[in-house]
Please model this.
Amino acid sequence: MWFHPVATGEAAVTVEAHNKPQDLTLWSTWFDPFSHRPWIALEEKQVPYQFRNTNPFLQEPSFLGVSPRGLVPALTVADGRPVNDSIIICEYIEDAFPSAPSLFPQDPYERSVVRTWVDRVNKGFVPCFFRLMQAQPTTEPEAHEKALQELYDELSAVCANWKGPFFLGEKFSLVDIAIGPWAVRDFIVERYRGFERQKVKGWTEWAEALASRPSIAKTTSEKYVEFNQTFLRNESHSRVAIAARSGRSIL
Ligand SMILES: N[C@@H](CCC(=O)N[C@@H](CS)C(=O)NCC(=O)O)C(=O)O
Model:
């Protein structure tokens, strides 16, 4: 069976609680970091939603109808229209539910700062993370060293602008959501790829603050490793893997 509630650990509680039809349906996979972003946004803003556990690799017609590129996450709204891409979905949730705590600051300049760093996380940090997972320390030590250094460089660039405890200070924002899924997954590269949190100033504190944020804590599972084995063996043929391998952004 694709969805094994026991294997989802704590996240299962949230998934189980969100299996009734609602205006918003999140087509999502509990172990996927991109899907994790709008899931956090929905929990943050306390918006009712249905969690529709979806295996994108099955390319089921119902799923392709809402996600023509076959990628999770997707969100369908009350009349069934789809929204695609994890960050665009978060922005939709923000725009559709402006009265709930905002994921953006009020000030237009500060809002542009949030967008700048979300973009940097997407184009820099995220592909580096996947490239490091795919790098093989034993058979390709140079490629592994390079990937590790690139991850340190990208994460350091973001963390250099982190105010603490969250990116903007006390306010939790879309930058925290953009990087949050990796704050609860970086143990994979610690365990298998020699990554050390302490080498990036501020990351340990930021990652801990993110992991303890209720919206992240209750959507996180301790079972991520088994679902990243194909990346760790560099055998994944997903679009993320192919893009990261060739040094392209993940679209
Ligand atoms: N830029 C997209 C990336 C989404 C993405 O790559 N999703 C992966 C998660 S596993 C997927 O659906 N892959 C299916 C495939 O490669 O066919 C986003 O942020 O939503």
Notes: Residues 211 and 217 are 6 Å apart (CA to CA).
